[in-house]
Design a protein that fits this description.
The chain is an alpha/beta fold and 562 residues long. The chain has helices at 7-44, 79-115, 121-132, 134-143, 147-169, 193-214, 223-244, 247-260, 264-295, 301-321, 330-350, 370-383, 398-401, 404-411, 423-432, 455-463, 481-493, 509-521, 546-559, and strands spanning 178-180, 183-185, 360-364, 389-392, 419-420, 445-450, 468-472, 499-503, 538-541.
Length: 562
């Protein structure tokens, strides 16, 4: 029986929540992502009785609020300016999160100096700030392209500063001299390399491991929602158990057991089931609210992910501060609020220009799987600072492009409402496309769910009037009938200087050339490309590493020029 909610009881409870919730989130997210991809693949293989494809009006898509003109007009932006902006914008975004993370760290360090006084003065406070700033290092690979390269530089740099702070603190003699008879111990510092490492591991080791597991790329798109649901349900259930085993709770349970004539064990079991159901429903409502905020443009996929990251660390840090008293848990909440306020102020100060930007349509050979997913992730991480991205959803990109509200509709059995089944649903889906930048300045991914007989009708609206086209044709051959249709459509309907085709050694180059030549030969009189002097799209041979991606980005920025 729990006599009272002491700091020790609360700390033990928080340890349980912090350990169990992310682990459950990982397991559940992996299962749900697998089910989601399977559901998408099955639906795409079905037919909906769609009539003969016809060109859809790409201009029917929803414009940004206020129906403003695009902030970046294709004819106005220079290639160098676009490329420079794409390369720098992720770092600017990361800097805003770093500033917000420092505000988070300052609040917690101020609280820690009160709960754990060390007598180290300013060096001790600086060490506290740096320990609590560790989430910034983890956030960098989530905001800047090339996560392995960023981590390889950021982690050693962080620990180098941490070591320097330890050397500085080691010069502060926070233990007075000690004399006992002939024994004399001079004043010294409590800071040692072993102690510094142990302190860091105690504060950051556990949540770092949980974060790496829970927010891996395969489940990253859905993990924040699942974490919100699981944590709410688990915290509610644990709280109900704490109440049940309190003195008043035990008395009430025994009295109810005697009055109903049932064993008290059944009451305990019912408490678990009912609380799990009630708080699970509360978690579902919370996830719904988050999805609604995302759908209305108040959140982005990146801000949602990083908010979950900082909440995880805030919970862990708050657990250790509880040793100073139950009220100190409020310092973790205050730190997170400070993080959000500073980030919002920094984002507002950045002054993102409104507009539709330069849209990018991504087409590909669906059978590429992870290869296409990796290319899309690399390009989108840059291009979403320039404009929105459109694509047809497939099993290869389903897990990385799913939107929060689409995922919750899938869980509720309503994923089919997002599929294009007729012309009315096509027009509705085109009108729902979000072309405006989000609160962090990044544009959205507009994904279209299509049946086997509706994707061709989506293609004209997918390309749009201002979009450039990136088509991944690695492993392309005569067996890819869908890509052949898309190439013929591009030749007929899209200025080919706005198309970039990615190839490599696995591409059947001769068949690709023949397909393009046949499409040009079949051009009807008066079509968009009829009479043009150059009817060759840009071919980009993709190699390995980061430099080929940068080269491809230059190609895309060049295609954005009229």
């Amino acid at each position: 029986m729990i006599e009272e909610l002491t700091p020790q009881v609360l700390m033990s409870t928080m340890v349980l929540v912090i350990l169990v919730s992310p682990c459950l989130t990982l397991a559940i997210s992996m299962l749900l992502v697998w089910l989601y991809r399977r559901a998408v693949a099955r639906a795409m293989a079905k037919t909906a009785g769609f009539d003969t494809p016809a060109a859809a009006n790409g201009s029917s898509r929803r414009s940004p609020s206020g129906a403003q003109e695009p902030g970046i007009r294709v004819g106005d932006a220079r290639v160098a300016d676009l490329y420079r902006r794409a390369m720098r914008a992720p770092w600017h975004n990361a800097a805003r999160y770093a500033v917000a993370g420092l505000a988070f760290a300052f609040v917690l360090a101020a609280a820690a100096t009160q709960v754990y006084p060390t007598g180290l003065g300013l060096p001790g406070f600086a060490i506290g700030v740096w320990i609590y700033a560790w989430p910034i290092v983890l956030a960098l690979p989530l905001t800047v392209p090339g996560p392995l390269r960023v981590a390889a530089v950021g982690v050693p740099a962080y620990f180098a500063v941490f070591a320097l702070l330890g050397l500085w603190a080691g010069t502060v003699a926070n233990l007075p001299e000690f004399r006992f008879g002939a024994v004399f111990v001079p004043a010294r510092s409590t800071v040692t390399p072993e102690g510094m490492l142990r302190l860091w591991l105690t504060a950051n080791g556990g949540p770092t491991l949980l974060m790496l597991l829970c927010f891996n790329r395969r489940v990253r798109a859905v993990a924040p929602l699942v974490l919100a649901l699981v944590t709410t349900a688990f915290i509610g259930t644990v709280s109900a158990v704490l109440v049940l085993f309190s003195p008043r709770g035990v008395d009430a349970a025994v009295g109810l057991s005697e009055s109903l004539g049932i064993h008290v064990i059944w009451l305990v079991g019912m408490t678990y089931v009912v609380s799990l159901g009630l708080f699970g429903a509360a978690g579902w409502l919370l996830a719904r609210r988050i999805a609604k905020a995302y759908q209305r443009g108040r959140l982005s996929d990146q801000s949602l992910l990083l908010d979950a990251l900082w909440l995880l660390f805030a919970s862990t840090y708050g657990m250790w501060l509880v040793r100073g008293g139950v009220a100190w848990i409020a310092s973790a909440a205050a730190a997170f609020v400070a993080y959000r306020l500073v980030w919002a102020a920094a984002a507002k100060f950045a002054g993102h220009a409104p507009g539709a930007g330069v849209g990018l349509t991504f087409l590909r050979v669906f059978s590429l799987g992870r290869r296409s997913d990796a290319l899309f992730a690399a390009i989108a991480s840059y291009w979403r600072h320039l404009g929105n991205v459109q694509l047809i959803t497939g099993p290869d990109l389903a897990h990385s492009t799913v939107q929060p509200y689409q995922f919750l509709d899938f869980l509720g059995g309503g994923l089919s409402r997002h599929f294009v089944r007729d012309r009315a649903s096509l027009e509705s889906r085109l009108a729902e496309c979000d072309l405006a930048p989000g609160p962090d300045g990044r544009f959205r991914i507009n994904n279209f769910f299509c049946y086997a007989d509706s994707w061709q009708a989506v293609l004209p609206g997918l390309v749009g009037e201002r979009n450039i086209v990136l088509m991944d044709l690695r492993s392309f051959s005569g067996a890819n009938a869908g890509c052949i249709h898309e190439l013929r459509f591009l030749v007929q309907e899209v200025p080919l200087d706005r198309c970039v085709l990615v190839i490599d050694e696995t591409t059947d180059a001769h068949f690709l050339e023949r397909t393009l030549q046949e499409a040009v030969a079949r051009l009807p009189a008066g079509s968009l490309n009829d009479g043009r002097h150059t009817l060759e799209p840009t071919l980009h041979h993709l190699g390995a590493g980061r430099k080929p991606v940068h080269g491809l980005m230059r190609r895309l920025c060049n295609a954005a020029e009229p």
